[in-house]
Structure formats: structure tokens, C-alpha cells
Amino acid sequence: AKQMGKNNSQYYTTQLSEEQMLLFELETSLYDAIAHNQLYLNYQPQLNLDTNKIESAEALVRWKHPTLGVISPGKFIPLAEETGLIISIGEWVLKTACIQAKKWIESGYGLKTIAVNISVKQFRQENFVEIVKNILESVNLEPKYLELEVTESILMQDRGKTALIINELSELGVKFSLDDFGTGYSSLSYLKKFPFHTIKIDQSFIRDLTVNQQDRALIDAVITLGKGYNMQVVAEGVETEAQLRLLEKFNCDIIQGRWLSMPISDVEFTQFIINFALD
Ligand code: C2E
Ligand code: CA
Ligand code: CA
Ligand code: CA
């Protein structure tokens, strides 16, 4: 057993340094990703269960690395946060998503919002409000079409500053959505203090919805709570018909997930929203 333990730890050490080398390589090439047009967005449709229409999409960034292929945001967003590159990547994402949304809205497909993920560091940058305003102006997109997704971690520190930023943008008409709800250190009092338009129930709660009575009770309660605060409730990661049925029963407003569609390219999304309206 001792022998095995030793081998295991050696194996582990080798793995770790390979991983570190990969991280280093990623970090170096991430600097060039924007300039070399390696970033692109996918869009995941959201279905409004009341109207049975696709009224929103969440923009999700992807990185097509020249040798490593497509890298998921779960791998490079943390790196971008560490290196500060998230500032320029975030701005690129926001602008690209707004330009795309403008096209869909003008085409009359019935899109009402584009949701964009905002990381903590991006939100905390000095002139975040100005950056958002400038992008909306340059793209000529009305603020009401933009929904910024933030996580509970944004509410943890410097709550006064956070409130100022959220309030200033909300007054313009920009919407805010509380992402991954239930996974952080959420205190229900946050919902009262910040003008969130939407809460997104994390997919980990949706996953076991049909088998776990506790998750079911929690989702039922969160949906009721959201309604009480006049917020829209989105269920993320809806994969099965059975999950959908339960969410309908609980009066969930919007669903997003594999059952409807995984994130797709802009071209595929255009086709998707057209086809959906026809069906
Ligand atoms: P998120 O904001 O919670 O996004 C939802 C993630 O769940 C996406 O992963 C999406 O592809 C995945 N997903 C959607 N439906 C299903 C489903 O039915 N089943 C399963 N198993 N997964 C589903 P993705 O695109 O890999 O993004 C991961 C995370 O990376 C996002 O989590 C978000 O936190 C971050 N991220 C993505 N794009 C951006 C961005 O542009 N900026 C920032 N700051 N973060 C981003
Ligand atoms: Ca999100
Ligand atoms: Ca989420
Ligand atoms: Ca409803």
C-alpha cells in the first residue's frame, strides 16, 4: 500500500506540472486571442414558457486556439481574470453581443434581450458604467435590450459600490440578472437590496429535480420568492421533458438548456428562432 501511495503521488506531481505548462501556454496565447480573431460567441436560446416564444439569448464566449482547438470559457475565463485580460475580452464580448442582438432585433425575430456574463473583475473596473454606456451608444442599442448576468460573488464585497453601479445602469434601462443562484453565499436580503430583473436557478438544482424532493422544494420556493419580488425566474440546464413539466407546474417563467438547445453559432441561432416561430 505504501508503494502504491508513493507511485500515486509521483503520478499526481507529473500531472500537475503538465497542467501548469498548459496553463502557461494558454496564458501566453490568450494575449493574442482578440487581435487574431480567435474569440467568438455562441448563443443559447431561452424559452419564455408563458408566451412559448424565444425571447432571449445568452452569449457565451469560446476561444478557437490555433493548435489546441476550441477551449471552453471555464478554462480560460479564470485565467483572463488572473491576468487582467478579462477587461479587454469582456469589452469585446459585450460589444459583439450587442451588435448581434441589434441585427436580430431589427430583423423582427421577437428577441427581447441579450444576456451577457460579466465577471467580478470586469464589473469592478474603474469605468465599467462608461464602457457599457459607450458600447450601447456606438452600437445604437437601447439599454432595455441588454441584460448583464452577475454572480453572487459580486455582492460579497464593497456592496455600496456594487449598488451604485447596478443602480446607475438600471436607471438607464439595463437589466441585471443574478446568475448561478443558490450556489454562492447568497443571502435572501440581497434580492431586496439590488434591483435584479431576473434570477437564474443554477443547473445543479435542476439536474436532480425529478428525483430529489429537497431540490424540488427549493426550486418551488425560489420561483415563488422571485415572483414576490417581481423578478423573472430562469431555470438553467434543463435537459429533459420531465424537468420541463415540473418547472411548468411551479410556474417558472423561462427555461434554458439542452432540452431546448445547447449554445449555438449566430447563424444557427437565426435559423433556430425562425424555425421555432414557425412550428
Ligand atoms: P454560466 O453563465 O452558468 O453558463 C451556463 C453554462 O452551462 C454554459 O457553459 C452552457 O453551455 C452550459 N449549459 C447550458 N445548458 C446546459 C445543459 O442543459 N446541460 C449542461 N450540462 N450544461 C448546459 P459554458 O458556455 O462552457 O460556460 C461556462 C461558464 O463560463 C459560464 O457559466 C460563465 O460563468 C462563463 N462564461 C461564459 N462566457 C462568458 C463570458 O463571455 N464572460 C464571462 N465573464 N464569463 C463567461
Ligand atoms: Ca450565465
Ligand atoms: Ca449560470
Ligand atoms: Ca408563468
Automatic annotation (TrEMBL):
Where the record annotates domain EAL, the positions are 23-277
* Regions annotated as coiled coil: none
Q: What is this protein called?
A: EAL domain-containing protein
Which species is listed as the source?
Cyanobacterium stanieri LEGE 03274
